[in-house]
Fold:
Amino acid sequence: MFVLEKPLPRPTEDSAPYWEAARREELRLQKCQDCGHVRFPPSLLCPRCLSERAEWVRTSGRGTVYSFIVVHRPQHPAFQPDAPYNVAIVELEEGPRLHTNLVEVENSEIEIGMPVEVVFEKVNDEVTLPKFRPRRTENPGER
Ligand SMILES: [Zn+2]
Structure:
């Protein structure tokens, strides 16, 4: 059977370390070495103080559901078999908000403010997607 492939993230020079970490099942974000601001998406300059000095720090992997929708009619046909599926914005403990999918939960059970933790879904040798499930452990980032 012909299976339509989903579009995947294409790492850029700025985002490559994010995707490399995801392949190791680590959620790493840039932290400004001058003002301490943790940012996402990846960028050359700190959006707060414009410093170029940043390090990739491992996050706690914990956050809460900031917002979500349930998609019934996907814009892209490759996602049709998954519908209805959720698209969520998770606010990490470190501050940044990520677009993601919530897994291991029924769409009808998702709530704003729900505590969640990161899990990793390997798509292929290049791309592993960070997703989130209802929180079960104290330190998901430490596993
Ligand atoms: Zn800064």
Remarks:
- The mean pLDDT is 94.
